[in-house]
Amino acid sequence: MKTALAGRTTDVRAAWPPLPRRTRPHRKVLTIRTPIPRRAAVVLTALSLAVPLVSWVALSASGLVPATFLPSPGAVLSAGWEMARSGELAVDVGTTTRRVLEGFGLAVLVSVPLGILMGTFHAAQAAFEPVIGLLRYLPASAFIPLLIIWLGLGEPSKIAILFIGTVFFNTLMTADAVRSVPRSLIDVSYTLGARRGEVLRKVVVPHSLPGIIDAVRVNAAAAWNFVVVAELVNSTAGLGYRIVRAQRFLQTDKIFAVLVVIGVIGLTIDVALRLLRARAGRWAA
Amino acid sequence: MTLALTDVSKEYGRKLALDGVNLTVTPGEFLCVVGASGSGKSTLLSLVAGLAMPTAGQITVDGHLITGPGPDRGLVFQTGSLYPWRTVERNVAFGLELLGLDGAERARRIDWYLAETGLADVRRSLPRQLSGGQQQRVAIARALVCEPDVLLLDEPFGALDVQTKEDMQLLIRQIWRDTGTTVLMVTHDVEEAVFLGTRVVVLASDPGRIAAETPIPLADDRDLAIKRTSDFLRLRASTEDMVRTWHRLRGEVTR
Fold it and tell me: b/e map of A107-128 (b: 16 or more CB within 10 Å)?
């Protein structure tokens, strides 16, 4: 092996100036991927909730913004209470939840098996990925007029929007989760005598289950977005319908109350799926 | 059981990974194949395992052509081939579950191999809770419980620290003697090959082919002390010389 200095008596490096050394600035809170003190974390989280809430209270109390634009927290609370008492809220929440369960449930039933096939078999990937990759970029809300022409103004068109809005993303994300199963795990299963179906059932599916639940969690949030959009057009019940109706009568307090309800429901679903994910993925922790 | 490779070649695209390999593994032997990276060591094992098919030549077990992977040729990778969601005992149980053995029969066999590999105390742990050495013991037990004709080891201790590696070398030798299984192991570590093997085959690189082979006439009951004996050091030195020579010649030998 021949090196730069081999056989030479003078080292040209002697003439080089020394490289400058960079000093490192001392940081405490903003260090990449480094835990901060627990108290600091609690304060930051509390501020992120308190600042918007306090600004809201202050702004509506100051009278700078008319109450029809920005109702006070108290007005929103009483509007919500009124809706809950009359039974209106329960009907709306029930209707919207049922639509999500039907539309998104259908999307999960289609996308999870399809995603598993696409992540497992190159043939399925070649057949479906280009089409789904394209369809995914067509905004579901743009389909609303078409779906109303095709399916009418009733429930089917609303379910269809939810389905279209979530099925493609969930398929691709499921396929990704399935593709992350290590090759060595599949190979070793064959050497232990597993057949193709057994590898799929006993190795591929259990390994990708946490990832699939993650995909469902992300797309459940999208489903709640789409259901409200779907209900803005020609509904007789539902949280989206309630918003449109409240707008007609300038009941901004009611709109705010419905938004709060949607947020709470979304958070509940997210936490539930998070717990499920933690349970299914205990082995990976 | 006799494993025989006859004129086996393997091409990946236009690259020749293995070129005309002839090799016979006889029942009960511990055959170590050493070579630098690029010598086609892992390719050789995946061909024997049936995970890849040779481009030319054939591989037979007792005269039967290998057409795919199966539990008669148990395989242990360097790392990361345990089922992370299964406990130690359920990892070991995988192959037996597929056979539909009843619970008692399964438990009896699993218990024996867990004890043999020193895993009885961690049988209900998950792989992520184990050390690297323990994880490899699970992989070995999982392959052996299927009673393979030959145990294929692909650099099984390559990712372990030196001390754990020596423990594992003693363990695999003990298991080999206790079970009477045939072992085909590939490694780049000459000392390991000489310590473990009853025979060592040296592979040349680019393309991978058999360069030399040497019997290891050391006693069967070897312990770590043998690594300091002159017999061992001489065998190790001559094998290292062969590996070095063929490593340097890489690319300078025309096909």
Answer: bbeebbebbbbbbbeeebeeeb
